[in-house]
Amino acid sequence: MDHFLGMPPLAAAFAIIAAGSILILAITLLWGASQWGAKTTHRVGDQMKNTRVIVSEWSGNEGYVHVDGELWRARANEALTPGDRVEVTKVDGLILEVTKKQR
Predict the structure, then answer these.
(1) Taking a C-beta distance cutoff of 8 angstroms, is the pair 49, 88 a contact?
(2) Residues 55, 75: Cα–Cα separation, whole Å
(3) Global pTM?
(4) Is residue 32 domain-shared with residue 73, that is, in the same domain?
(5) 66 and 94, same domain (yes or no)
């Protein structure tokens, strides 16, 4: 019977697979640790407050606004029209509450 690295073939195969798995885990953990404190370009929750956005579509008290190239659902206590510049006052889940921008 042939031996690889002084071990029987099945034991050698298991050792190689185990070493590869440990290497992949170590690389993944190192990459994750390097990303831990990285700043994201995405703003969510309270970070969206006071953001100035532009109304894209509007009907009644609801519609859509553009935020940094993304389309967000929004609502307001006033009638708005497409093109209006508004400010985010509150975030309720995935809906932005907006009001007309004060000049």
Answers:
(1) yes
(2) 10
(3) 0.57
(4) no
(5) yes
Provide φ and ψ at 24, rounded to 5°: -65, -45
Task: State how far the Cα of 94 lies from the Cα of 54, in Å rounded to an integer.
Answer: 17
- Looking at the structure of the chain, the number of domains it has is 2
What is the per-residue pLDDT across 16-68, written as a single tens digit (0 to 9) for each?
999 999 999 999 999 998 888 776 666 666 777 888 899 999 999 999 999 88
Query: DSSP readout, 22-78?
Result: HHHHHHHHHHHHHHTTPPPS---GGGGTT-EEEEEEEETTEEEEEETTEEEEEE-SS
d(CA 61, CA 93): 17
Domain CATH for 79: 2.40.50.140
Q: Which two tokens stand for residue 46?
A: 């309270």
Q: How far apart are CA 80 and CA 62, in angstroms?
A: 9
The size of the chain, in residues, is 103
Domain coverage including residue 81: 45-100
Q: How far is CA 79 from CA 26, 95, 99, in A?
A: 55, 17, 10
